[in-house]
Amino acid sequence: MITVLFGGSRPAGNSAELAKMTLQDLDYNWIDLTQYRFNPVRDVRHDEQIISSYNDDYKIIIDQVLKSDTVLLVSPVYWYSVSASMKAFIDHWSETLRDPDYPDFKEKMAQIDFRLILVGGDCPKIKARPCMHQIEYSLEFLGAALKDYLIGNANAPGEIVKDTYAVRIAEKWNSEFKRKSKTLQETK
């Protein structure tokens, strides 16, 4: 199963459009993170406290992520980082590491094919790279890996189609996902 964690504020914006190009003619689970509530993360690493509840929507999302074969993290570049909703979701991974309901959290995350789609308008191929590394290092900390990333250059609505490189990579990923889906269906 492919799950999209979408962190954009425009449901039909450039990052959403690029993600949908990537997933054309595929089945996927689209999760708009802006439609969920994430409380500030509680850092309990040094007081040995156990997390027993989140009091927000995090568990609804992480349970879907952990059932996925592929997860696309999709965000516009906001102030040279991922969106606040994406970052709030990722911050909760610290709590999940201390949650007895997820004893195999790192092992499950390591099995997922994570990909990142970022779109920005201010020299994103250069200025969004630290953002990509943020995601890469966060996944590595969990024993997971960022398999690939795609940085698109667009600002005004609909501009992403002018970034022929990004469109070409989206089409490449689409072909990969279709082959993978076909292989999975044949082995069932």
TrEMBL record:
GO terms for molecular function: oxidoreductase activity. Keywords: Flavoprotein, FMN. The keyword Flavoprotein applies. InterPro entries: Flavoprotein-like_sf, FMN_Rdtase-like_dom, ISF_SsuE-like. Pfam families: FMN_red. Residues 2-108 form the NADPH-dependent FMN reductase-like domain. The keyword rRNA-binding does not apply. Homotetramer. This is FMN-dependent NADPH-azoreductase.
